[in-house]
Design brief:
Elements: H1 3-12, H2 22-27, H3 29-39, E1 45-46, H4 48-52, H5 58-70, H6 93-111, E2 119-120, H7 127-140, H8 145-148, H9 154-171, H10 175-191, H11 194-197, H12 204-211, H13 215-251, H14 259-266, H15 272-307, H16 309-317, E3 322-323, E4 328-329, H17 330-336, H18 344-363, H19 366-373, H20 377-401, H21 416-426, H22 429-432, H23 444-464, H24 467-475, H25 479-491, H26 508-518, H27 524-533, H28 542-546, H29 550-557, H30 562-568
Antiparallel strand pairs: 1-2, 3-4
Helix pairs in contact: 7-9, 9-13, 10-13, 14-17, 15-16, 15-26, 18-23, 20-21, 20-23, 21-23, 25-27, 25-29, 26-27
Length: 572
């Protein structure tokens, strides 16, 4: 039996009444998933139910008890008016079988010979259920207050009680569950009468003697207790709702990213790369901005934000789960990319994307920044460059010395690093073959790609001119050069072409949004205007339109990307 199947069985079988608020987990899929995730973290322990199924199915056990129950007489055979207690009769056939199985089960545990397949996780061992059990015990004690402490005022006890259980529920970090439990408690107060539990068991004299309070006074104090508890809980829930609304108001400017709308938008894009490029823009416009806002929230009110994290996500993204470094909404990923990890176009896109992330992380780390400020700056950079060049040189030697074929699967792990490097340098291998570590920034492929494709040319540029001068120069570059540079990337298949609409016009909003995300140093409107005016096929006019040194400007914009440099050498 699978873990999920066992969990569902444990959650629905009748003898799990020890699980507090069981019905809430059975009815709410979200709460059920939270419990299931904790269930998987519990230790495996011997499970009698699994062992019983070795001999008897659940249906056989159920029918056995039904048969046994029907065979128990309720009246004495000699006198039909005499009621007979069922426990005066011997065990039924099913009970005898189960007792023998249990004895065998316990003996195997004692002998340490129980097979591992009869071990399972236990819902009662989850932190969530342990926390709720404490809350339930405190709620159970609520009705006993008027009988155990006549000195303390009901108002004071009710206030203390509500504060205690709300603090315990907040520790669980499940706002949905907390609200349901508190609302259920308020509802139960209306239907709870101390008369049902206590008063009916004693006459007035016996009640006064046992509890030191009259029935009438006990009823009055209990009514007062219920009234105050109701007031304090409603007040608390109103404050929580107000806090939640205030939190949501702070992120409302981001808007609402409906995953159904994203799915419709992606239908307009045919290729995987086009869809991923669109989602990259979406990430910048929504998720990245969301992270900035919520990080500020955490500083001010970390506990409250963590508690309402899922609520916030649903408010913005119509979804709580994301896939891939692009933070693609789970329904969108399942719709378009569920099996895309078998597509080279998909994995190559993420190889470049993850490598770019690693590159940016590397050049922004404190150690690298310190090296750039050091008097030994050039020495550090030259040492790193030499190391990268030596790796490439040694890897290339192996092609002739060892006859390595990078296009075949290699069982020999001795030259794994060199093979990965040669595949990166090949330029086409990962465009045509999948890499199954596309989402792992720590993977060997990503680390190799970012160092040799991004970092190496970056270091070469640092050694030829200061980065600050390069940055200033970029700031003065007009939008038309950015537009030409982007046309070149499209021509090189490094970027997808913007698809024209039904009127055969370029999508203004999409292009401007792309420019805002990728080329923030220029006006997105100017980029759009320049982009639609360029005829990439008419290269003979480039020197006239962009000037004699336009290639130098393009190299600068590309951070001296060797692939771009090689490509534009063909231009006039």
């Amino acid at each position: 039996m699978g873990k999920r199947e066992q969990f569902n069985k444990d959650l629905t079988k009748r003898r799990v009444r020890k699980i507090p608020y069981l019905d809430l987990f059975q009815k709410d899929d979200y709460l059920k998933e939270k419990l299931y995730s904790q269930y998987l973290d519990t230790s495996l322990t011997p499970n009698l139910s699994l062992y019983q199924n070795k001999y008897l199915s659940d249906l056989e056990i159920q029918n056995g008890f039904l048969k046994g129950h029907q065979s128990i007489p309720t009246t004495h055979p000699k006198n039909s008016t005499d009621i007979v207690a069922a426990n005066h009769y011997p065990l039924s056939e099913i009970e005898i079988k189960l007792k023998k199985i249990e004895i065998e089960f316990l003996k195997k545990i004692q002998d340490n010979s129980l097979d591992e397949k009869y071990y399972a996780h236990n819902i009662l061992d989850t932190t969530l259920i342990k926390q709720l059990s404490i809350v339930q015990e405190e709620i159970d004690d609520f009705t006993k207050f008027v009988l155990t402490d006549q000195k303390e005022k009901p108002s004071k006890y009710a206030k203390s009680f509500v504060k205690s259980i709300t603090l315990k529920l907040e520790l669980i970090k499940l706002p949905v569950l907390k609200k349901k439990i508190l609302n259920n408690f308020i509802e139960s107060l209306e239907n709870t009468d101390i008369q049902i539990f206590i008063l009916s068991e004693y006459n007035n004299i016996a009640f006064l003697k046992k509890f030191g309070i009259t029935k009438k006074e006990a009823e009055r104090r209990f009514r007062e207790l219920k009234r105050y508890a109701n007031i304090f809980i409603i007040k608390y829930l109103k404050e929580v709702t107000q806090k939640e609304n205030n939190l949501l108001n702070r992120i409302k400017p981001l808007g609402y990213l409906d995953h159904t709308h994203i799915i419709e938008e992606l239908n307009k894009h045919r290729s995987i790369s086009q869809r991923l490029n669109y989602l990259r823009i979406i990430k910048g416009e929504y998720y990245d901005k969301y992270k900035v806002i919520t990080n500020e929230m955490r500083i001010k009110d970390e506990g409250f934000f963590i508690e309402y994290h899922d609520t916030v996500l649903e408010t913005i993204f119509s979804n709580k789960e994301f896939k891939s470094p692009l933070k693609i909404q789970y329904p969108v990923y399942e719709h378009y990319f569920k099996n895309s990890d078998k597509e080279p176009e998909f994995t190559y896109w993420f190889l470049k994307y993850n490598s770019e992330l690693e590159f940016n992380k590397f050049i922004n780390q404190n150690e690298f920044k310190s090296q750039l400020k050091s008097e030994l700056r050039d020495t550090f950079l030259k040492a790193e460059l030499k190391h990268l060049n030596d790796l490439e040189k040694n890897a290339k030697k192996l092609i002739s010395i060892k006859g390595l074929n990078i296009y075949k699967y290699h069982y020999n792990r001795e030259y794994e690093n060199e093979i990965v490097l040669l595949r990166v340098l090949d330029g086409n291998y990962y465009k045509e073959n999948t890499t199954y570590l596309n989402n792992g920034n720590g993977s060997k492929v990503v680390q190799t790609y970012f160092r040799h494709i991004f970092l190496k040319p970056y270091i070469e540029e640092l050694l030829t001119q200061k980065l600050t001068q390069q940055t200033k120069a970029k700031g003065k570059i007009s939008a038309k050069f950015y537009a030409l540079y982007h046309w070149i990337l499209i021509e090189m298949d490094k970027e997808p072409m913007f698809e024209r609409n039904l009127d055969d016009k370029y999508p203004r909003k999409e292009i401007q949004q792309f420019a805002k995300t990728h080329y923030p140093a220029i006006s997105s409107q100017m980029f759009y205007r320049e982009f639609i005016e360029i005829d990439i096929s008419n290269k003979d006019n480039f020197r006239k339109i962009f000037g004699k040194s336009y290639k130098k400007t393009i190299r600068n914009l590309s951070n001296f990307d060797p692939e771009v440099n090689k490509h534009i050498e063909k231009y006039p």
